[in-house]
Design brief:
This protein is about 20% helix and about 30% strand. The protein is of the alpha+beta class and about 290 residues long. The longest helix is centred in the N-terminal third of the chain and has 15 residues. The radius of gyration is 18 Å and the shape is globular.
Length: about 290
């Protein structure tokens, strides 16, 4: 199943199904076909409604959704919000691709991931502006694959990791690199400015990944239409199954928690740039944000 949060002309945001390059409001589908589910993704996850939504999608979507052209919006006309706005936790993973660590002349972590946390006040949606803060003279942007947790869990075995995962999406993660280089203890500060975490546009459940093989996905950091870095998830030092299991040993993971799995490479940002995350190998849409000074 594929979902997205769309913003209307009044600024209101609501959950939509994404089917055959069109978006249909979950609320309108419910009104016509009686498929009653929450109309925001965070509530879907917190109330445990996702399995029932997937079951309905698998059984009914191909037949029912094309019968609602009056509610259908082509992807070219969609205006997105973030998938949701108040995750309890946002985990980031530093230097998780060996090639990226080498580019920075850093030694990649080998025993445990270089984890950090970001506040939800950093969160923006597709098309929203990344604002360069006055306190930094060198901001970088990074494309990443994000894991979204689907149920409360603790001490998850690696082999069972997908049982607690709701799905995946695209992320752009920003860093005030000069602040970080002045003092590595400033990682939280360097990562936490407003607009430093873009989230969306499309949420994919694990069955939308071919063969559920997340390791085959390729993540690209793209600046102004040019691919600046790319790598395959299989080349992570700590793969997604490890990240879910490891972080569930630190603290209880909750529905809607996000683990942003690391970047193949960052690019320096300037006002007027267009930063993009592309993930190849599954039906993600690109995540694109302009940069403002």
């Amino acid at each position: 199943m594929r979902l997205a949060t769309l913003r209307n002309e009044y600024g209101d945001e609501a959950l939509h199904y994404y089917h055959d390059r069109h978006f249909l409001p979950v609320s309108d589908v419910a009104a016509v076909f009686g498929a009653f589910f929450p109309t925001d993704l965070q509530t879907v996850l917190e109330e445990g409604a996702l399995p029932d939504m997937i079951e309905w999608w698998d059984r009914e979507a191909d037949e029912r959704l094309p019968r609602l052209p009056e509610f259908s919006l082509h992807e070219s006309r969609a205006v997105f919000g973030p998938l949701y706005r108040r995750p309890r936790k946002i985990w980031g993973i530093g230097l998780n691709y060996r090639d990226h660590a080498a580019d920075l002349d850093e030694t990649p972590p080998s025993a445990e991931p270089a984890s950090f946390m970001k506040p939800d006040t950093a969160l923006i949606g597709p098309g929203d502006a990344i604002r360069l803060p006055d306190l930094s003279e060198r901001v970088t942007g990074e494309a990443e694959l994000a894991i979204i947790i689907g149920r409360e869990c603790r001490n998850v075995p690696r082999e069972d990791w997908l049982s607690v995962v709701a799905g995946f999406t695209t992320v752009l993660d920003m860093t005030a690199e000069d602040i970080l280089r002045r003092n590595p203890r400033n990682l939280t500060q360097a990562k936490s400015f407003d607009t430093f975490f873009s989230f969306g546009p499309v949420f994919l459940t694990p069955d939308e990944i071919p063969n559920r093989d997340v390791s085959a996905l390729t993540v690209q950091t793209v600046l102004n239409g040019e691919v600046r870095a790319e790598n395959t998830v299989a080349n992570m030092t700590f793969p997604p199954d490890f990240l879910v299991a490891y972080h569930s040993r630190i603290m209880t993971l909750l529905p809607g928690d996000i683990i942003s799995t690391g970047t193949p490479g960052a690019t320096v940002l300037a006002a007027g740039d267009l930063l993009e995350c592309r993930i190849l190998g599954a039906p993600f849409l690109p995540l694109v944000n302009p940069v403002e000074g």
